[in-house]
Amino acid sequence: MFHGCTHLSYTGRSCVTESGTVRSVDQSGVAVLTRNHPQPVTHKESPVVSPKDICIIMNAGSGQQDAGLGPEKIEAAFVDLGAACTVKLIDDGATIEAETRNALNEGYKKIVAAGGDGTICAVASAIRGSAAAMGILPLGTFNYVARSLDVPTDVAAAAKVIVQAKSRTMRIATLNDSVFLNNASLGAYPAILETREGIYKRWGRSRPAAYWAVIKTLGTVRPPLRLRITADGKTRDVRSPLVFVVNNAYQLRQMGVEGADLIEDGKMVVFIAPDATRIEMIRMAAVIAMGMGLPERKFEVMSGAEILIEGIGRRSRRSRAIARDGEREHLSLPFRLKVIEDALTVLVADPDPGTPR
User: Fold this and answer.
1) What 3-state DSSP class applies to 106?
2) What is the pTM of this model?
3) Distance between CA atoms of residues 145 and 31, nearest Å
4) Of the candidates 339, 218, 231, which has an alpha carbon nearest to the alpha carbon of residue 279?
5) Under a CB-based contact definition with an 8 Å cutoff, are residues 95 and 121 in contact?
């Protein structure tokens, strides 16, 4: 996995390269890259950070990792700033939250999510409420969280933000106590994500693969959902193929959709798609999945700091596929969503939060 390290296949073994980099596999089999404390540097504006200060949780499946932005280039960006760091390269995205908790237990004060919004969400889930701060190296497709915080998408510039260590708090949202930062959804959208990930694993990440996932999902998507949704004391019974809950005002602005002002008032915004044919429901989900906004058909809109979504009918409590920041899982209804202010400390270029984005 790492060139020049001959002991990666043996747990606990390591090697030291001429550059002083220690490469090993930890007890859980995660590839670990640790640079020894660097020699004093002449960059007076770049503080030397202790080896236990920065841990980078890197998703091996992120889009830019596929494009060649690997762990050694990430490490080099910090070394250029005179900062020591440990890079944990995670092959299985489902273990990111657990590996982040391990990093917390190891004493790291800054834990960096290197990946897309799903990776950032998983790291945030682990460090919420702790004394650690989360840094971001945006390596995903949309990078809504990073962009909403004005974190640079250039890796070297983002690394500088992390080393400079200016921080602020940000809010999170939860669905049955599971964290999301951008959005959560149920219905046709999670179905597309499930199909897309299977295609990506087989054929690699590409736009044609994403479009093929949409077409393939046509044959598997279930009928519209029958739901009771309560927000801000108002309850509606709906039949809908797609419910999309947004917590990130910046994402709505980028999609050209109204509702950012409601998020700035401390609420989440719920978009409820109209009942539709199978082809129409997939088209609606596909437009959202491609980051193209909301379809032309009118969505019902609700908002609230706390939202309850219940099922209606004989199968009202059955397990449903949901997506949180693009990552899928199955949870049983009812779904309880809420906003938690100032739940997470993040490293940013400008510590003044200003207007929520």
Assistant:
1) coil
2) 0.80
3) 26
4) 218
5) no
Q: Please tell me the distance from the alpha carbon of residue 270 to that of residue 43, in angstroms, as a whole number.
A: 48
d(CA 178, CA 324): 8
Biggest CA pair distance of the chain: 69
Q: Report the C-alpha gap between 77 and 91 in whole angstroms.
A: 22
Number of Cβ within 10 Å of residue 197's Cβ equals: 17
The SS3 assignment for 34 reads strand
What number of other Cβ atoms are within 10 A of residue 206's Cβ?
A: 12
Helices marked H in 222-343: 249-255, 260-264, 278-289
What is the rounded CA–CA span in Å between residue 195 and residue 216? 7
| Cα distance from N-terminal residue to C-terminal residue, the chain | 38
Q: Are 244 and 288 in contact (CB under 8 A)?
A: yes
Q: Mean pLDDT, 10 residues at a time, over the chain (357 residues)?
A: 27 31 51 46 43 88 66 92 94 94 96 96 97 95 91 94 94 97 88 66 60 60 85 94 93 88 96 77 62 63 97 82 90 95 95 63
Q: Which two tokens stand for residue 230?
A: 């309560």
Amino acid at 178: S
Smallest CA-to-CA distance from 86 within 20, 32, 6, 13 is with 32
Encode burial over 255-284: b for 16+ CB neighbours within 10 A, e otherwise: bebebbebbeeebbbbbbbbebebebbbbb
Do 217 and 282 form a contact (C-beta atoms < 8 A)?
A: yes
Helix/strand/coil percentages in the chain, nearest 5: 30, 30, 40
Neighbours of 287 (CB within 10 A): 17
Structure tokens, 213: 């996932």
